[in-house]
Design the sequence.
């Protein structure tokens, strides 16, 4: 590996994100961008109107360090309503600049140099970078897709999980619903993870930003709800995916007060505070009726089915996701060398579509596991998905 000048050793190997590269490729070629996971439809009017009204008021100035009290209260109410978890909004809820800051601040606050983090791969790309910035060491456990033609979920091997937990392990980082695979961890899997974490006395940092975007046949359960897990678990989520406001960057962490205090110590020296006019808007969103949350999942499931049908018709075998914005395909039937990177770089010319090579979500040592996989986003309008499916069907 060629060393990047000036960059610290901790961040060598972390260049420009794949999302920036592929989004730039979409703009340069006029291709449909099914790479980066952002919706192209506005969020609910009830939420947007509150943000508009807040601009030009005192909300333009610094909000309180932990977040607006009304938002922290709404987050606590939301956790109780949907997860049955009770948190004190004054000391057990912290508002952050999106879930990414919540996760990064938690890792910076909780890890000492050399501490190990057990996590599943493929993994969202910020995880490895945040662990590196904190001086930690990732210990990935592979998730494996079902065999071609099998409609089953991604799975992991219990022996590989237990082998990843060494005496240096400090924390389990769990993402469910999972990006990029769309997997929703089952009750039995969560029970196993809870037993492993308890036995090894691990903290658990759980990324649940897709908590409401779960499709029929699957159910999201927070590991913090399992017996004995609340006291060792930090639950992270955000409003971006739930309310189509990914640019607002309003996230949060819920945990016992000592853990929240530790995370706040790191967070206050990152962004300090953020998103003043957006915080009251997300508070309103979290209090929307149940019909809103079931409706967004149902609509996204329909979009998933549109894209999955188009991908399958184009000769790309799909692992149909149980949740999130993303579907994974095996490119080997149309890319004989199985090189997902080469497929994605040529796809704008071949079909006028941009996607993301899944290999970027693996540690370099495990790249072969994801070399042939590619991720497509379906959080787009029906017209965009239909046009993308037609283009993929004409792929050269």
Sequence:
């Amino acid at each position: 590996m060629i060393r990047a000048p000036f960059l610290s050793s901790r961040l060598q190997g972390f260049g420009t994100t794949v999302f920036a590269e592929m989004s730039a490729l979409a703009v340069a070629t006029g291709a449909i961008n099914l790479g980066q996971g952002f919706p192209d439809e506005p969020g609910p009017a009830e939420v947007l109107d509150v943000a508009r009204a807040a601009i030009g008021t005192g909300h333009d100035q610094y909000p309180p360090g932990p977040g607006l009290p009304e938002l922290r209260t709404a987050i606590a109410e939301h956790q109780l309503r949907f997860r049955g978890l009770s948190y004190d909004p004054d000391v057990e809820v912290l508002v952050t600049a999106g879930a990414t800051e919540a996760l990064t601040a938690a890792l910076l606050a909780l890890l000492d140099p050399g501490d190990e983090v057990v996590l599943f791969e493929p993994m969202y790309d910020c995880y490895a970078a945040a662990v590196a910035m904190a001086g930690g060491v990732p210990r990935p456990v592979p998730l494996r897709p079902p065999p071609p033609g099998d409609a089953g979920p991604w799975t992991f091997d219990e022996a590989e999980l237990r082998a990843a937990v060494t005496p240096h392990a400090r924390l389990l980082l769990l993402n469910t619903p999972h990006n990029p695979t769309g997997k929703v961890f089952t009750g039995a899997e969560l029970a196993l993870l809870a037993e492993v974490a308890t036995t090894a006395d691990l903290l658990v940092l759980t990324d649940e930003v897709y908590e409401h975007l779960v499709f029929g046949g699957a159910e999201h359960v927070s590991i913090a709800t399992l017996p004995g897990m609340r006291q060792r678990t930090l639950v992270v989520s955000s409003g971006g995916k739930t309310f189509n406001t990914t640019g607002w960057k309003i996230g949060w962490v819920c945990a016992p007060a000592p853990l929240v205090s530790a995370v706040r110590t790191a967070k206050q020296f990152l962004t300090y505070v953020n998103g003043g006019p957006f915080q009251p808007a997300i508070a309103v969103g979290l209090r929307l009726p149940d019909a809103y949350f079931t409706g967004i999942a149902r609509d996204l499931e329909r979009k998933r089915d549109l894209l999955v049908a188009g991908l399958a018709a184009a000769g790309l075998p799909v692992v149909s996701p149980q949740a999130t914005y993303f579907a994974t395909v095996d490119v080997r039937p149309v890319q004989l060398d199985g090189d997902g990177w080469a497929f994605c770089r040529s796809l704008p010319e071949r079909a006028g579509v941009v996607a993301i090579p899944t290999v970027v979500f693996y540690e370099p040592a495990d790249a072969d596991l994801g070399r042939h996989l590619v991720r497509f986003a379906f959080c787009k309008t029906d017209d965009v998905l239909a046009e993308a499916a037609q283009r993929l069907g004409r792929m050269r």
